Amino acid sequence: MDYVLEVEDVRVEFGGIVAVDGAGFRLRPGQILALIGPNGAGKTSLLNVVSGFYRPKRGRVVFMGRDITRVPPHKRAAMGLARTFQHSELFKHMTVVENIMAGLEPWRRYSILDAALWTGRARDWEEWARWKAEQVIDLLELHRYRDSIVEGLPPGIQKRVDLARALAQDPKVVLMDEPMAGLSREEKEDLARAIVEVNETQGVSFVLVEHDLEVVMDLCDWVVAMESGRVISEGPPEKVARDPKVVEAYLGG
Amino acid sequence: MPAGVFKERYSQLMAHLRYPIHWAGLVAGLALLLALPLAGSYAMSLAIDAAIFFVAAVGLAVTTGLAGQISLAQGALLGVGAYTVAKTLEFLAAHGGVPEGSALLLIPAAGLVAAAVGLLVGLPSFKLKGYYLAMASIAAQAVLMYLFQRVIDPNQGVTVPDKAMTLGGLYFGGGGAALYYLTIGVAAVMALVAANIGRSSIGRAFKAVRDNDVSASIVGIDVAKAKALAFAVGAFYAGVAGALYALYNISFGWDAFGLDTSIELLAIVLVGGASRIIWGPLLGVLLLHTGWSLLDDVVSGLPGVGLIGGADTVKYLVFGLLVAGFVVGEPDGLVGVLRRVKEYFRLWPFSY
Ligand SMILES: Nc1ncnc2c1ncn2[C@@H]1O[C@H](COP(=O)(O)OP(=O)(O)O)[C@@H](O)[C@H]1O
Ligand SMILES: [Mg+2]
Predict the structure, then answer these.
(1) Whose CA is nearest to atom 14 of ligand 1?
(2) pLDDT, tens digit, for every residue of B327-339?
(3) For B89-116, b where at least 16 C-beta lie within 10 A, e where not — what string?
(4) Which domains does chain A have, with CATH numbers?
């Protein structure tokens, strides 16, 4: 398989507004791809098509060789396609560990009767899920916050919880919408290190929507630049950064 | 977690009873419940009535507190359970006779029938939220009430045959000790089951849907299925409670399953503390249901109460204010208040 994820010729409309106008990209296994572009370029809308939250007017999404354009969002996570959000979309009245474990529900292997009677089946699975959660808690150094209610945690920690929830699902591809936005320099470095580690040790591919060009240059193998719903340039980071169209879109936008 | 108490295994972390004080409380509570019949039949009646409301309230706490789906149809679902028992027995009586103890077997059946009806009641939740969902459930409540009044029990009054409530020489009807122990036992098991569901992955899915249904679906939770399940579980509890209601009252009509009962149950859950599916309903029932029934005579006797429509008017006025107050001021309900009091004393005397 050449590509884990192929997004082709996607069009998204809201009423009269065309948010995405024939955009797409292709992601190779193990790649970290950056989606850049000025505000309103259509990056979030494109990610929402990939995660299934928006049904595109046109175009298709192929994941691991399978057309998933019409697969409902909740089934995509179980296939290995995880997602983090631009603004915190955590379960805010639940603890950090509960947030992470909630993402394992697609892999639950016991019935509501097992749950009601707390049978061995339920206990064993819960033990596995807790172990799974502890692994990402270790990876993202969330020990101190494990049993804290998410609401009220600092933004940097919430971003890490969001990533932890995605990584606990053992995804093939993680879509991250502006993971670095609002983080301090130190928090950015921590998060970047975690992404690189998962990428290198587990071969997880990433699509990052990112504004911070320094982060993009350091982290990414491939950059796709968007403007007004279209892809205006793509290629290795150094090349895209020098592309006059990209420079103009950023300065002019 | 107190310092020095380290939990080795995750399963220990997940246990309901983690500290000696929990066990002590459990033993004391059990002893009290076992000995209560010694206090006489009035006390037993109060306790049976409270346990029935507790079961219905725990179910609603799963639907509304855990999964965030507001329902004002729990009263009618109680009726579904009660009529399942009475009407099945009526059918059996007309077709060859009522087997001994059959009313007891019908308790879980009443739960299942109510769960199926609850699924239908929950259908609008796929599209509606908050106030709109509350309105839809009021409509479901009205439809069910209409069916009780016009189709199922047009003469307002059904009776559970004595034979159906007799098993092995014990009589499980009315306010006797046999029904008392049965009801308390059923309530305890149902509470444990709710707690188990609450700490399971299914319970986390409920809470995830309550907190943020968009990201719930993105992390892989089937939101529609979770909502349907939350309604079905809540309705199952109402059905079981309704069956016990039928045994306790022996003869009954539909007047107990109206919107006022649904409102009372929602008040119990919200005032007790919606997110605490055992302690919230327990406190709510003891205060709003049992507490109020003890106060009923006092309130009726107050000057002027007769003019404004009697004790019931005062009751719903007070309940309404309590619900509004708790929703605005203390979403965690009385459980939240108690937790803060406990926190205050834990830190005492450095509590400023
Ligand atoms: N839910 C929506 N309803 C209407 N318009 C939207 C919606 N989401 C995005 N848009 C519009 O679509 C365009 C692209 O937005 P978005 O995908 O959020 O861009 P980006 O993430 O690149 O900043 C913008 O013009 C935005 O106003
Ligand atoms: Mg965006």
Answers:
(1) A42
(2) 777 777 777 777 7
(3) bbebeeeeebeebbbbebbebbbbbbbe
(4) 1-80+171-253 (3.40.50.300), 91-170 (no CATH)
